[in-house]
Design a protein that fits this description.
By secondary structure, the chain is of the alpha/beta class. The chain has three domains: 54 residues; 48 residues; 199 residues, 3-Layer(aba) Sandwich (Rossmann fold), CATH 3.40.50.300. Helices cover 54% and strands 13% of the residues. The chain has 13 helices and eight strands. The protein has an eight-stranded mixed beta sheet, with helices on both faces. Helix 4 crosses helix 12 and helix 6 packs parallel to helix 7.
Length: 334
């Protein structure tokens, strides 16, 4: 073999070495992840078995609340504080009292209607922002008169969204303004400075949409304080609700409104997310009627709903040792 033929072969071998090394490193990394997952799963199983032996009353409460849709994170915080002698119905009553204490509901006698100001309803698509804006405006109009209330819409994406709000405005006898950008918002709010309450209906967007940050910045530069109210759908799962709160929270978020409680089989996930994120809950909605289906939040009612037994025969109900398996699986998530 000539020297000229040997050189390309040697060069090709040298080029392959980094690729082979990269594949080997990836394989080693995957094996480490697998070992870590197995170890975390095993440790979680040991911890669960140890707790079952030492504190069976806390395990029973853990199972009960987990079945209601509460997160393991919140349940752990609760059972750590529960007196050791509580068990059975007494433990459940204690948990109910603790959940009520930690669910921060706005005082019905000192809500946003009395305070006044500018409120923007924000949240993902389909949670009921436009209908809820109309309900709030209707309550405000009945209380203070049409001359003290106004509506603004930023939703120019959905076909008929502005028309829907204008119909509500016409029925209530209050003006509806459409804005496109921060400059329009500044001018419109300046003209509405004599109004006691101004409600802003925003375009629905995914919590992971980059425009969410732009929306927050627009309200921050509006020239007047704009407080955001986050609409959370009670029929959404806990993972989704947690993701929504994480992306929509920040300066200017006054609290939340819980919609669609009439469509929710379990209230545990929504109560869990609101409690853990320490959100103030102002209102709940339970239907499409304007303005009847808007109510002040009541902690006792909501916690009782959340602790109501799930429908029998649900395919999502856990049996026997399946709870241990699920706990181990969650602990091994990377």
């Amino acid at each position: 073999m000539s020297a000229n033929t040997a050189r390309p072969a040697k060069a090709a071998a040298e080029d392959e070495e980094p690729e082979v090394m990269a594949q080997e490193l990836k394989q080693i990394g995957d094996e480490i992840k697998l070992l870590r997952s197995l170890l975390q799963s095993q440790l979680a199983s040991f911890a669960w078995s140890d707790m079952e032996g030492k504190t069976p009353n806390r395990i029973e409460l853990f199972k009960h609340l987990l079945g209601m849709g509460f997160s393991a994170n919140l349940i752990r915080q609760l059972i750590e504080k529960m007196p050791a002698q509580y068990e059975g119905d007494i433990a459940i009553k204690w948990a109910r009292s603790a959940l009520m204490h930690n669910l921060k509901c706005a005082d019905a006698n000192h809500d946003i209607m009395d305070k006044g100001g500018v409120y923007a309803l924000v949240g993902p698509t389909g949670v009921g922002k436009t209908t809820t804006v109309a309900k709030l405006a209707a309550h405000a109009t009945m209380r203070f008169g049409a001359q003290h209330v106004a509506l603004i819409t930023t939703d120019s994406y959905r076909i008929g969204a502005q028309d829907q709000l204008r119909i509500y405005g016409k029925i209530l006898g209050i003006p509806v303004f459409s804005i496109q950008n921060e400059g329009d918002l500044q001018l419109t709010l300046a003209d509405l400075s004599n109004r006691h309450l101004v409600f802003i209906d925003t375009v629905g967007m995914s919590q992971r949409d980059a425009r969410v940050t732009g929306q927050i910045e627009m309200f921050r530069g509006a020239g007047r304080q704009v407080e955001r109210l986050l609409l959370l759908a009670a029929n959404a799962d806990g993972h989704t609700l947690e993701d929504v709160v994480r992306h929509y929270r920040g300066n200017g978020l006054a609290g939340c409104i819980l919609s669609k409680i009439d469509e929710a089989v379990s209230m545990g996930p929504s109560m869990d997310v609101i409690i853990r994120n320490r959100l103030k809950l102002f209102y709940i909605t339970n239907g499409q009627r304007v303005p009847e289906d808007l109510h002040s939040a009541n902690a006792a009612f909501l916690v009782d709903r959340a602790l109501r037994a799930p429908q029998p025969g649900s395919p999502f109900s856990l049996q026997g040792d399946e709870l241990t398996i699920m706990n181990s699986a969650q602990a091994s998530w990377l």
